[in-house]
Write a structure and sequence with these properties.
Elements: E1 4-8, E2 11-14, H1 15-29, H2 32-65, H3 70-119, H4 128-142, H5 145-173, H6 185-220, H7 222-229, H8 233-289, H9 294-336, E3 353-361, E4 371-379, E5 383-387, H10 394-401, E6 409-414, E7 417-418, H11 424-429, E8 431-434, H12 445-450, H13 456-469, H14 472-475, H15 499-511, E9 517-521, H16 529-542, E10 547-552, E11 563-568, E12 571-576, H17 578-584, H18 587-610
Parallel strand pairs: 5-10, 5-11, 8-9, 9-10
Antiparallel strand pairs: 1-2, 3-4, 3-6, 6-7, 11-12
Length: 611
């Protein structure tokens, strides 16, 4: 096995290190995956390559050549039968244990990948390179690479044991035959280059495969079904899908000839030269020199085949292990990734104040700042609205307050202390958040609200929260009410909700929580004006004496606020109360006047619909 594989000038992948890393992971998850394969494969290969093809054949043919008696012949047959039964039992038991262990290892390794994914920075999800690495890491699970690597190591152990016994047997007949096995050694080098080419090919296909997977998933998702059926976007998606396939075909063709040549040369050195050479020399010894008996000739031919098979198995295993090492390099680097958002040591206590001091932030791939030198302070019990048009930097501000990202300049203080000094989980748990890109999950309504498995007490609390958010009117129409699973993806009696109803369920999480500060990022974006007004009434009631931050481009929340911060292109352009900002006649008053006229038109439509 090579020490490392050089993919590029500056990229070297340590093969042995990654193989050992993979084996440690598997042994930690369940040792019987490896042990089961070693027992099963050793019993299978040792019996097939040595006992059956060599030892038993040599014993029987020698008995015939020397005109041994029939009783001895029968005795050998019985011994062979007993040995065969024992080894077959061991083989079955080993494979059974490894089969059971495979499920356990898959579960544990998947859990490790999922837990790592959850711990990663939010910024990773906006990085295509991360998605490629994440996909290659999960492919190790879905493609069963961990199973393959244990199987290959076990097969190398089994074949090596059989190989040693067969070589000892053939050496006792004539050591010259070992010379015909020398070309097989070149197979290892050839398979190394082949595995490197296969990995590079698969690496180049990753992005195309991700595009294909995205389109395959999108076509079947309910969220996209209406748009796909009422527009020409399906044709756009299909063109992307076909382009990804064509790009993969180009890659496959580019590597196809090279891989074919590697395979042909490998076959030449592993099969043609050893077999033809051995047959020719054995025939010469048997016919012309008469130095080889019939039994010796048969054993030599059988031994060479056994050695060839064992050597090919080992070469192929080294080839696969080299490939697995390349894939496990992705998994290892995925697990080794250290979040940029580093935990502090302090616990976030009861909220007193939240202050931003000259903070600026730019996304890694962006050219301009999303937040540009802004400062503000929010004290306990205040209701603050952060308003502005789409793209003003409002949602980015939320991400900074929750430490999904860290500011590039300035600092954010919680109770006068830089938020970097707090434990991340403690800080985030001080906030109750409702995001504009809300998501509900394929679990029960109650579990969606409480975000945990629910007791009867939890269900009552969730029901109250659903009433406050306005979602209960719809939920109570379901046969199982709050125990109904959202979406019909996994449950026939599940329920689908409209965008507004889904947002109400998501908002109910806030009503169900005990929080220090509520951050509402466009909490009513999917609601009509009437439902929006009712929700804000309930929010005002639920957040009495609480600190609330409204993030919105709709200004109905601003009227209820103690302070309004107006953002534009990442900067604070206005700040004050609703009356003062209306009186100043700036950007806020213009936005409010435009939205007020829009609301008046909508209210008129609702009145006509109700007549």
């Amino acid at each position: 096995m090579p020490r490392y594989i050089k993919l590029h000038e500056d990229v070297k992948v340590p093969v042995l290190k990654n193989v050992v890393y993979a084996l440690k992971l598997c042994l930690k998850a369940d040792k019987w995956l490896m042990l089961g394969y070693i027992i099963g494969l050793t019993a299978e290969q040792f019996f097939a390559l040595f006992i059956q093809n060599i030892l038993f054949l040599k014993t029987l043919l020698t008995a015939i050549d020397t005109h041994g008696d029939f009783k001895a012949y029968v005795k050998y047959l019985v011994l062979f039968l007993i040995c065969s039964v024992i080894l077959n039992i061991l083989e079955w038991w080993g494979y059974y244990m490894s089969h059971v262990a495979t499920k356990k290892v898959l579960q544990k390794l998947n859990n490790m990948v999922f837990e790592k994914a959850v711990s990663l920075d939010i910024s990773c999800y906006e990085d295509p390179a991360f998605y490629d690495k994440y996909q290659r890491a999960t492919n190790i699970m879905s493609s069963g690479y961990f199973d393959i690597i244990c199987y290959d190591v076990a097969l190398i152990v089994a074949d090596t044991l059989a190989f040693i016994c067969v070589v000892a047997t053939i050496t006792s007949i004539n050591p010259v035959y070992l010379l015909f096995l020398v070309p097989v050694l070149f197979v290892f080098a050839i398979e190394l280059y082949k595995s490197r080419a296969v990995y590079r090919r698969d690496l180049e296909m990753t992005k195309n495969n991700r595009i294909k997977a995205y389109i395959q998933r999108t076509v079947f998702l309910k969220d996209y079904s209406k748009d796909i059926r009422t527009s020409n976007i399906f044709l756009v998606l299909m063109k992307r899908f076909e382009a990804a396939i064509k790009a993969n075909i180009v890659i496959l063709r580019r590597y196809g000839l090279k891989l074919f040549v590697y395979s042909m040369v490998s076959s030449l050195f592993s099969e043609f030269i050893p077999i033809i050479g051995t047959y020719a020399y054995a025939g010469y010894e048997f016919v012309f020199k008469s130095s080889l008996t019939v039994s010796g000739f048969s054993v030599v031919i059988s031994s060479i085949n056994s050695i060839k098979n064992a050597t090919l198995d080992i070469a192929e295993c080294f080839d696969e292990l080299s490939q697995m090492a390349l894939f496990f390099e992705n998994l290892r680097s995925f697990f080794d990734y250290e979040p940029k958002i580093v935990d502090g040591t302090k616990e976030a206590g009861e909220f007193e104040s939240l202050e931003a001091k000259n903070i600026s932030f730019k996304y890694p791939t962006a050219e301009v700042k999303s937040i540009d030198n802004i400062s503000f302070k929010i004290t306990k019990g205040e209701t603050v609205a952060v308003v502005g048009i789409n793209g003003a930097g409002k949602s980015t501000l939320v991400k900074l307050l929750l430490r999904f990202y860290d500011v590039d300049e300035g600092e954010i203080l919680y109770n006068g202390v830089n938020i970097k000094e707090y434990k991340v989980e403690s800080l985030r748990m001080a906030f109750a958040t409702v995001f504009q890109d809300y998501k509900n999950f394929a679990v029960s309504v109650y579990e969606n609200v409480m975000c945990r498995e629910c007791s009867e007490e939890d269900k009552q609390k969730a029901k109250k929260a659903l009433i406050q958010s306005g979602a209960w009117e719809k939920i109570k129409t379901f046969k199982k009410e709050g125990d109904t699973v959202l979406t019909r993806e996994f449950e026939e009696d599940g329920a689908g909700l409209s965008g507004g109803e889904n947002q109400k369920v998501s908002t109910a999480r806030l009503f169900a929580r005990d929080f220090q500060v509520a951050i509402l990022d466009e909490p009513s974006s999917a609601l009509d004006p009437v439902a929006e007004y009712k929700m804000y009434e309930n929010l005002v009631e639920a957040t009495k004496e609480k600190t609330v931050i409204y993030i919105s481009h709709r200004l109905s929340s601003a009227v209820l606020s103690d302070k309004i911060i107006v953002l534009d292109k990442g900067r604070i352009v206005e700040s004050g109360t609703h009356p003062s900002l209306m009186q100043s006649g700036g950007e806020y008053s213009e936005m409010f006047a435009l939205q007020a006229s829009s609301y008046n038109r909508k209210e008129g439509e609702y009145e006509r619909e109700s007549e």
